[in-house]
Design a protein that fits this description.
117 residues, mainly alpha, two-stranded antiparallel sheet, 5 helices, 48% helix
């Protein structure tokens, strides 16, 4: 199941280069925050999975990914044993859900700055 939040701007003001830049910066800050929370929950053995994580922002689109052959399996299998405190399955989905309001506030800072002119 994919979790996402959609932003739609219905205002009168046309997007400008500054508006896009400020929004992109807010998106990056928000995703970096979620990534930090995720890094505290990702299962650890040799830390390969943790080291494979990254944030990518391209304009107004962004993603967080973990790139190992077992990343999805570790994320989805609720029956796996994660002996270290705080380490668990759903290490990306849960922070995306729990930190949604924080991310939106981080993005709003740049948007307000742009809308005020």
């Amino acid at each position: 199941m994919t979790q996402y939040t959609r932003f739609r701007y219905d205002g009168q003001r046309q997007w400008t280069a500054r508006g896009r830049r400020l929004t992109s910066e807010g998106l990056r800050r928000g995703l970096e925050h979620v990534f930090g929370v995720s890094q505290q929950q990702v299962p650890l053995d040799e830390a390969t999975l943790q080291r494979s994580g990254k944030v990518n922002v391209d304009g107004l689109e962004g993603s967080i990914s973990y790139d190992t052959v077992y990343a999805v399996i570790q994320h989805e299998r609720m029956d796996f044993n994660h002996p270290l405190p705080g380490r668990k399955a759903k290490y990306l989905e849960d922070p995306m859900t729990s930190e949604r309001a924080v991310v939106l506030r981080m993005m709003a800072v740049g948007l307000r700055r742009w809308l005020r002119g």
